[in-house]
Amino acid sequence: MEIGIIGLGKMGGNMAERLRRAGHTVVGFDRSPQSSRDVDSLESLVGRLSAPRVVWVMVPAGDPTRATVQELGGLLSPGDVIIDGGNSRYTDDLVHAEELRAKQIGYVDAGVSGGVWGLENGYALMVGGSTEDVAKAQPVFDALKPEGEAGFVHAGPVGAGHFAKMVHNGIEYGLMQAYAEGYELLAATDVVTDVPGVLASWTQGTVIRSWLLDLLVRALEEDPDLAEITGYVDDSGEGRWTVEEAINHRVPMPAISAALYARFASRQDDSPAMKAVAALRNQFGGHAVRSVAKGEAEAPA
């Protein structure tokens, strides 16, 4: 089938290539003239597709996605379908679907997982939308998903796909943090002399084996002491949204919340909160504090 893809970065470009390998016709557009785009405008992309058109938006979440969906809404025709495959918040999906419904344009939200490995391995897809709209794009979903029965789910109505992907990413935060803390403890002791070897041994036969563990082993093979990177860790927003939704629904989520806060802590060169703790210990117990100027512990005069 024919499909337009907007956004040809690491994910979008690889998705376009996987679809072409599966025999689909892809018309790609990206704002960057240096990209491998097929057309130089959204108007040209829409004009190259046969009705009913399916257009996949793969641009950064937030304003870039909102602007793209709004512009497409003015170019497409009744019966066409827009798929948002970025990491949008599910509440944005509800707004987009309502605005497009008045124009009889379908809307599907697709949570996509697979990263840069998806080209060869396939992408896990969690989609939300009406049965009719999802069916129009089903050949595309079938081509993008991994081989086998799993890897694709019609999770529910509009919003369900991105809600599922949000929770997926929240779980990812917790898993990565657990592996990272285990790595740090192994590296901190003199008892274990082959930390990368221990982690590699866990990839076979253990109950904690996973693709994330495989990737940590790969990272340590490339940089055994992780000396080439800093400990600054950003977040895309989905971990925050997961915790916010947990609060809204009164669902206890201590592991994912702690993982999110650990990322916040990673961005502080010198924690104001821990400065306050040091000052309090000094005030009530006379405990030594470390001077900024001298960089050494000083007891109170």
Automatic annotation (TrEMBL):
Pfam families per the UniProt record, alphabetical: 6PGD, NAD_binding_2
InterPro entries per record: 3-OH-isobutyrate_DH-rel_CS, 6-PGluconate_DH-like_C_sf, 6DGDH_YqeC, 6PGD_dom2, 6PGDH_C, 6PGDH_NADP-bd, NAD(P)-bd_dom_sf, Pgluconate_DH
Superkingdom, taxonomy of origin: Bacteria
Protein's name according to its UniProt entry: 6-phosphogluconate dehydrogenase (Decarboxylating)
Regions crossing the membrane: none
Signal sequence coordinates: none
PROSITE patterns with a match to the protein in the record: 3_HYDROXYISOBUT_DH (PS00895)
Family annotation (Gene3D superfamilies): N-(1-d-carboxylethyl)-l-norvaline Dehydrogenase, domain 2 (1.10.1040.10), NAD(P)-binding Rossmann-like Domain (3.40.50.720)
Organism of this sequence: Motilibacter rhizosphaerae
Family statement: Belongs to the 6-phosphogluconate dehydrogenase family.
Domain 6-phosphogluconate dehydrogenase C-terminal: 161-295
UniProt keyword list: Gluconate utilization, Oxidoreductase
GO molecular function per UniProt: NADP binding; phosphogluconate dehydrogenase (decarboxylating) activity
GO biological-process terms attached to the record: D-gluconate metabolic process; organic acid catabolic process; pentose-phosphate shunt
